[in-house]
Write a structure and sequence with these properties.
Elements: E1 7-12, E2 15-24, E3 33-38, E4 43-47, E5 50-54, E6 56-59, E7 65-79, H1 84-89, E8 98-100, H2 110-118, H3 123-137, H4 149-160, H5 168-171, H6 179-190, H7 194-211, H8 216-222, H9 228-239, E9 254-257
Parallel strand pairs: 1-9
Antiparallel strand pairs: 1-2, 2-7, 3-6, 3-7, 4-5, 4-7, 6-8
Length: 265
């Protein structure tokens, strides 16, 4: 085991993979579901019902819990519960539950997980691995994406323009799509609701400027939040920790904003 604290964040819209050997959180709940897999020792997760140890666990959305596993080399995958992929496995765990998973299902992935932990993977390999992790929980088909060109252009517009310059009613203008139809087509084509996509763009923008050393007030403004309190509250609701950790525990973390060939958003 590597005694030096190390962390890597792999970031996409709607999901994050976090590799660490220094996982120690306070009690919290967050909107994202979490798939946690240990590479060696067991992970200790505590809820109001008590402590339990896991080699692999699925933490349902909004579950009040804490993880106390310093020195345990592990992977945590946080995924928006409104995505197609999480919807495909959601029946395995309740909304406020920690489900123990059979680690033998994950054993074929261990070598690739070590590569992920060490940072020795491409963006595409990281993306493929996160899907294989989810399929170890419950098999599901790949979301087939014959994506409407208008939706591709709208997603690109959202990613490349300042988040606070985009309003829901204005997004479809110029693409001959009404607001109601846009909301439906966006989820059908990209597997995530438009409002959640907009939020994730803001959150990833925030992480980028946090790592550049901006203060919370600047970050909130640049990412389209009303103020630093609104930003901090929204960030914690989605990730389970406050953004100020990027000035402390996560200051030395490597952050990778990932792209992959089969993703259009």
């Amino acid at each position: 085991m590597d005694s030096e604290n190390k962390s890597i964040l792999y970031l996409w819209n709607s999901r994050v993979m976090f590799t660490t050997n220094a996982m120690q959180t306070d009690f919290h709940a967050h909107y994202a579901a979490t798939l946690a897999v240990s590479l060696d020792k067991k992970i200790c997760i505590e809820t109001e019902k008590g402590k339990e140890e896991y080699r692999a666990a699925l933490v349902g959305p909004n579950t009040f819990h804490r993880t106390v596993s310093p020195g345990v080399e592990m992977i945590a995958l946080l995924i928006d519960p409104e995505t197609y992929e999480y919807g495909s496995i959601a029946g395995v765990v309740g909304a406020e539950e920690v489900k123990k998973l059979d680690f033998t299902a994950f054993e074929p992935l261990v070598e690739r997980l070590w590569n992920l932990y060490s940072g020795n993977v491409s963006d595409q390999e990281a993306w493929d691995l996160h899907l294989d992790l989810l399929r170890c929980v419950y098999p599901f088909r790949k979301l087939e994406k014959n994506v409407d060109e208008r939706i591709k252009k709208i997603a690109h517009k959202i990613r490349t323009e300042l988040p606070d310059s985009i309003r829901m009613k204005e997004i479809g203008q110029g693409f001959s799509i009404s607001e109601d139809r846009l909301i439906r087509l966006f989820k059908e084509n990209l597997g995530i609701p438009l409002r959640r996509y907009l939020l994730w763009v803001r959150l990833l923008t925030a992480v980028k400027v946090l790592k550049e050393g901006k203060n919370l007030t600047e970050v909130a403004h640049l990412a389209g939040f009303s103020d630093s309190a609104h930003f901090t509250r929204t960030f914690k609701e989605n990730f389970g920790f406050v953004p100020s950790l990027f000035f402390g525990h996560l200051k030395s973390a490597e952050v990778r904003f990932c792209e992959s060939d089969d993703r259009v958003f």
